[in-house]
Amino acid sequence: MKPTLCERELRSLMEVYHRPLLAYATRITGDGWLAEDLVQEALTRLWQRPEVVSNRARITPWLFTVVRNLLIDRARARARRPHEVFDVCDNVQQDHADETLMSMTVTAMLDGLTPQHREVLEHVYLRDSTLRQAARELNIPEGTAKSRLRNALRLLRDDVRDPLAA
């Protein structure tokens, strides 16, 4: 197990770096909630990398670079995802019955997936994790997570194209 920073050291670093990192992240994202997420992730990564703390001069540029890279990774992940069908139909009014039917249909389609496919799909799309994060949380190789996600999307797409085949 890798050594990590003690709670006191981490608290001290958070007091010093949280506010400037949050200001920077808010300025580049324009979104306070997203900025807070990026800062927390950056500080978590600092906590996991005590060798960075050993060189005090490297901490500030390292943290700001991590925040910037996290934002870039998030933008790339969103760009790689296919556009949702409902994005095209924003101006169409749906009543409660449509929402219920859609929910039942999606639930049935997800139930048709294997648990392994569904897990990866939930991590990436519902929990907004990157593939790397999903793989880490599921304790599987990143390539396996990528394959499972691709296969799950293919199965769902096939289900949408031919709902009677299932």
From TrEMBL:
Keyword check for Lipid biosynthesis: no
Annotated PANTHER family: ECF RNA POLYMERASE SIGMA FACTOR SIGL, RNA POLYMERASE ECF-TYPE SIGMA FACTO
Keywords: DNA-binding, Sigma factor, Transcription, Transcription regulation
Protein's UniProt name: RNA polymerase RpoE-like sigma-24 subunit
Domain RNA polymerase sigma-70 region: 13-81, 110-157
Family the UniProt entry places it in: Belongs to the sigma-70 factor family. ECF subfamily.
Superkingdom of origin organism: Bacteria
UniProt record, GO biological process: DNA-templated transcription initiation
NCBIfam families in the cross-refs: sigma70-ECF
SUPFAM superfamilies recorded: Sigma2 domain of RNA polymerase sigma factors, Sigma3 and sigma4 domains of RNA polymerase sigma factors
GO molecular function, one term: DNA binding
InterPro entries noted in UniProt: RNA_pol_sigma-70-like, RNA_pol_sigma-70_dom, RNA_pol_sigma70_r2, RNA_pol_sigma70_r4, RNA_pol_sigma_r2, RNA_pol_sigma_r3/r4-like, WH-like_DNA-bd_sf
Originating organism: Lentzea atacamensis
